[in-house]
Fold this sequence. Notes:
Blueprint: E1 3-7, H1 8-17, E2 29-33, E3 39-44, E4 48-54, E5 63-69, E6 75-76, E7 82-83, E8 91-96, E9 103-110, E10 117-125, H2 133-138, H3 151-154, H4 158-165, E11 171-174, E12 182-186, E13 189-196, H5 209-216
Antiparallel strand pairs: 1-8, 2-3, 2-5, 3-4, 4-13, 5-10, 6-7, 8-9, 9-10, 11-12, 12-13
Amino acid sequence: MSHFELSMLRLMRAMKVTTDCARYYLAGALVEPIEGGGAWIVATNGTVMLIQKDESAKAPRPAIIRVTPAEFEPEEDEFGNVSTTWNWGTSTIKIPTGDIYSTHAAPVSWKENEPFTHAIAEFVEKADRFPEWRSAISAKRKDPRLAVPDERYTAVQPGQLQHLTEWAIGFEIHPAEPAHAQTITYVGDPNSLGVIMPMARDRDNHLPAIMTAIQANQS
Length: 219
């Protein structure tokens, strides 16, 4: 196999998660071949993680890939509606296998059509530098800060949740025990799983003061 063939839509969702990443080996998404066909596309910034299964992907080897699309030129359709961003939909990107740290101009196509645009694809690091993402989902985090009832460690930051949900039709957050990851599932997309890394949470389930006040004034 001479190239990667991946869902551009899933790659661009993954790129949003890497936006706030401080570690260079997390600046791209891990593409991991699945035996029998397809690939996992996994992205994390150390706080949240997005796991996607690209069932039609072709991946000759594991790789950490960063993709930067061409700048979109706003265009107006016949009804006067103006598009300001790419609608990746069913598009795929073909990336030459390349060497570690190599950069390529990779064609992006919709269905079986000729390439419509190109994106810059970079192999940013060796795949084995990426964290063991499977164990991160189930492992209990051993961090003394998680025992501290401080809002910095008990609340989800809006930006973190936005990276995992801004593209979704709807989503559901699944609670977890303290120091374990919380997961997010998506309406209409069973091949995606969002993960919020472990944090401390009050398991006594005290109602906030405003809820207590509301219930006290019920007729």
